[in-house]
Amino acid sequence: MKLIIRNAKIIDPTSPFHNQTTDLLIVDGCLQKIEKTLPNPDNVEELQLENLHVSQGWFDSSVSLGEPGFEERETLANGLLVAAKSGFTAVALQPNTNPVIDNQSQINFVLSKAKNAATELYPIGALSKGSEGIDMAEMFDMKNAGAIAFGDYNKSISNANLLKIALQYVQDFDGLLIAFCQDNTLKGHGVVHEGIVSTRLGLKGIPSLAEELQVARNLYLLEYTSGKLHIPTISTQKSVELIKEAKAKGLQVTSSVAVHNLVLTDEKLDDFDTRFKVLPPLRSETDRQALLEGIHDGTIDMITSDHNPIDIEHKKMEFDGAKYGTIGLESAFSSLLTVLPLELVIEKLTAGKATFSIKSHSITEGAAASLSLFNPDGDAIFQKENILSKSKNSAFLGSAIKGKAYGIVNQGQLILNK
């Protein structure tokens, strides 16, 4: 592939061209030249888009794609195309498939299916067999096959000894564990955040304590084992404080927050719309503000779409029976710009690579061309035609958004959201 990208403003603090508007010549997947204006005597294909900005490729640390087993929700091929058109050059695939990705052959399967995609797929292996929280999965074998981390998606490890042993075990091969935090005995039959809204609506609540108690326990286990832990999709003010204290003590802990928990609150539940049934639940405005503060001060390391497609049969039903989850790839960037400044959004959409040991590519001459293309300006409403996924369970339908993801250049391919 040969391509000249015209008049692109580069947003990359690691690049000597940061905040400059330049032309970029890409040849065979590499950034060959970056100059103010590039000649084109060979009539190379050119790309010129309105108010075009480019950054290092974005990485999403939590994406569910259904296949294998739940292809009616999403396939790997279409899911990776959706990610590309949404501006993501890499995604971490959750193991919540059927069968669960808990062994080497399942890692090999998803990697083979994603081989030619523009968006790179990095599988997360299950921490426990079948994600049942009883026995450790074959983590070393999965690491050798290409797994970047190990966790049971949206399932907490209630057995503290299992998590302790796993934290000790993966240190032998520098493995990373992901520990979703929720005390299921405190959650009980809760379906939404426990607070004023749940009381008003008569819905069973999930107390913030259900998350915070598990965060505290897991941080104690981390301190005891001197291991390495990622705590995904935190949602409460106290969780932010606990992680901040742990980092101050020098523990090797990172955390993420889902876009919907940064942008939306439980006030959205008034119409009993199951699109807003997510896990962890949408919390209070106080929690949302604390999460935003955690993003600003660096306590929270990365932002994820926590993209989780659910078929209509399991979503469009009474609230208590509906499955948790929202799709989020298509709306992630434009929703974040409504609550955070551009450079911070880019930082938190790329920072996860360091945690998951994925190589970053600075926008410099001679580097690999791994770019996200976007326009940070312009206001709109997120509508059904903006959804590219097979499933349509978006919590952001009808929400105000800002800017637009144009697509990516990655793996020698240009993918645009036309």
TrEMBL record:
One matching Pfam family: DHOase
Tell me the ranges covered by the Dihydroorotase catalytic domain, including all copies: 57-238
Q: What keywords are assigned to this protein? A: Pyrimidine biosynthesis
Query: Sorted alphabetically, which CDD domains does this protein's record hold?
Result: DHOase_IIa (cd01317)
InterPro entries, per the entry:
DHOase, DHOase/Allantoinase_Hydrolase, DHOase_cat, Metal-dep_hydrolase_composite, Metal_Hydrolase
- PANTHER family reported for this sequence: ALLANTOINASE
Which protein are we looking at? Dihydroorotase
The organism's lineage?
Bacteria, Pseudomonadati, Bacteroidota, Flavobacteriia, Flavobacteriales
